[in-house]
UniProtKB/TrEMBL annotation, chain A:
Range of residues in the leader sequence: 1-21
Domain of life, per lineage: Bacteria
Protein's recorded name: Cytochrome c55X
Tagged with keyword Signal: yes
InterPro entries, A to Z: Cyt_c-like_dom, Cyt_c-like_dom_sf
One Gene Ontology molecular-function label: heme binding
UniProt keyword annotations, A-Z: Heme, Iron, Metal-binding, Signal
Domain Cytochrome c, residue spans: 32-101
Lineage: Bacteria, Pseudomonadati, Pseudomonadota, Gammaproteobacteria, Alteromonadales
Hydrolase as UniProt keyword: no
UniProtKB/TrEMBL annotation, chain B:
Organism: Pseudoalteromonas denitrificans DSM 6059
Cited PANTHER family: DIHYDRO-HEME D1 DEHYDROGENASE, PROTEIN NIRF
Source superkingdom: Bacteria
Presence of the UniProt keyword Signal in the record: yes
Alphabetic keyword roster: Signal
Protein name per UniProt: Protein NirF
Lineage of producing organism: Bacteria, Pseudomonadati, Pseudomonadota, Gammaproteobacteria, Alteromonadales
Transmembrane listed as a keyword: no
Length: 109, 403
């Protein structure tokens, strides 16, 4: 019984990991689109160079202490009470995570 | 022989001088039908002529032009370009060159020119406030710091943050009016005397994000992001303070995420009705300007960004926020109904009408073109290439209050 349970758990673990691995690959074409969205549409509040506007600055030095998961969550769900909207209708969580990672790297500068 | 050579030399010199100068009698150029288009990604502007529908020149080196805007000197010769990086550039559109350029702050959002044309004001995010310059020399005349934000994190340099300033316009009586996004205020700066004077209105409503002034310069209205409604000041009766209008608007409605704040520049009016973009809803609101009550609403394709009336006010043209920004809709101001939907292409950012309104130019950012339509049949007349065009500004703005 116990073994079966561990077996199922392992299977689920392996399957979910492989699904995630696949989804982690944001296609080159989609990366190009996301790059454009970050520069132009995030840029309409955060500034096209991302150094801030009505929205906060989101350059790597500004995000130093913000974990990738926190940034991903913020992109997907927005920040209630501020002008930051939830982007979940536009972006998948994997895409949001890709943006969060690249923001921290300074890719969009 | 010697004289012949001299004569030929003089002739060549005269001819080449003539060819070089813009101001020879055959080559005079007036500026009343010209304009400047922002090409934001490349830090360039394009100087255009809206009679010949052509590009006259490109000027580069203007820095970060995302969200850049322009005002004109009253002689319509100089364009003041307000860049996002705090750059203020004075362009001579007769000579196709930069006359002066300064970096006046770290992060700015727009500007205005005074009633007498002698002062240019810039509203800044960082450090929050308004700076006023001599329109001729760009020398600093006044530095107005916005309200300090004590509960907030400090600036990177350790100084206390100040409220960001938005919605800066000129008003009659040599005044500038502007809104403070973080401290919920509207300030009126009066420059009619040598020592300027500021009147502050506080608690005007949460998070004013942009503002407009009516074409007669009487009403200043700030849109509020943090709550429903708008804040209004009657500048003929400033003693009456701020009136909160349309406050029931949006109650009970589930708002959509706002991916792009609407712009309140331009005051679309027909008779006693004004047309304004709703925030977070696929609607244009109709307001009765006698009662300041909502008189109606028009369902549209997306969240409106610019709601602009033709100069004759017969039709109102609307563009939309991402992701629906490939569309323009046209509203008949008599029946408040949609008459046409256009699909110019991805990223329609701005529109500008010719002074008497026979044509409208629109920038289609992602297609790298400017499109020109006639306003009667709404037919595409011509396309002009431009690199990621955003704002289009014609020189007739020089003589309009608030623009």
């Amino acid at each position: 019984m116990k073994l079966t349970f561990i077996g199922i758990f392992c299977c689920v673990f392996i399957v979910s990991n492989s699904v995630l691995a696949n989804q982690n690959n944001v296609s080159k074409q989609r990366q190009k689109e996301l790059f454009h969205i970050v520069k132009q549409d995030c840029g309409s509040c955060h500034g096209m160079t991302l150094k801030g506007g009505l929205g906060t600055a989101i350059l790597p030095e500004d995000l130093k202490n913000k974990p990738i998961d926190f940034l991903t969550f913020t992109i997907i769900n927005g920040r209630p009470g501020t002008a930051m909207p939830p982007w979940k209708e536009i972006l998948t969580p994997i895409e949001a995570k890709w943006i969060a990672q690249e923001l921290k790297k300074g890719t969009f500068k | 022989m010697k004289y012949q050579i001299q004569l030929i030399c003089i002739c060549i010199l005269t001819l080449s001088l003539n060819a070089c100068m813009n101001t020879t009698p055959d080559n005079l150029r007036a500026t009343g039908d010209m304009g400047v288009v922002i090409e934001r990604a490349t830090g360039q502007v394009q100087i255009v002529n809206h009679t010949s529908k052509t590009t006259l020149a490109h000027i580069d080196g203007l820095g970060d032009l995302s969200h850049a805007s322009i005002v004109y000197s009253r002689d319509q010769r100089f364009a003041y370009v307000f860049g996002r990086d705090g750059g203020l550039t004075k362009i001579d559109i007769l000579k196709d060159q930069i006359d002066k350029r300064i970096i006046q702050s770290g992060n700015s959002i727009g500007g205005a020119i005074s009633q007498d044309g002698k002062l240019v004001a810039v509203s800044n995010y960082t450090p929050g406030g308004v700076k006023v310059f001599d329109a001729d020399t760009l020398e600093l005349i006044a530095d107005i710091s916005a309200t300090k934000l004590l509960g907030h994190a400090k600036n990177k340099d350790g100084t206390t943050k100040r409220s960001k300033v938005v919605g800066l316009v000129d008003a009659p009586g040599q005044k500038f009016v502007f809104s403070l996004f973080d401290s919920d205020e509207i300030w009126v700066a009066d420059f009619s005397k040598p020592q300027y004077h500021i009147t502050k209105y506080t608690d005007i409503g949460r998070a004013p994000y942009d503002a407009l002034i009516s074409p007669d310069g009487r009403y200043y209205i700030a849109g509020l992001f943090g709550e429903d409604g708008m804040a209004l000041i009657d500048l003929w009766h400033p003693e009456n303070g701020v009136k909160h209008i349309l406050k029931n608007y949006g109650k009970g409605d589930k708002k959509l995420p706002v991916y792009k704040m609407p712009h309140l520049e331009g005051w679309a009016m027909a008779g006693e009705f004004a047309f304004v973009p709703a925030v977070g809803q696929h609607k244009v609101l109709v307001i009765n300007t006698r009662t300041w009550q909502q008189a109606g609403e028009i369902k549209v394709h997306g969240q409106p960004v610019f709601v602009m009336a033709q100069p004759d006010n017969r039709y109102v043209w609307v563009n939309f926020a991402f992701p629906r920004n490939d569309t323009i809709q046209i509203i008949d101001t008599q029946s408040n109904s949609l008459i046409k939907t256009l699909k110019p292409g991805k990223g329609v950012l701005h529109m500008e009408f010719t002074p008497r309104g026979e044509h409208v130019w629109m920038s289609v950012r992602d297609e790298n073109i400017i499109q020109i339509y006639d306003t009667k049949q709404q037919q595409l007349l011509k396309q002009i290439p431009a690199t990621h065009p955003s704002g289009i500004f014609f020189t007739n703005r020089a003589h309009q209050i608030g623009l």
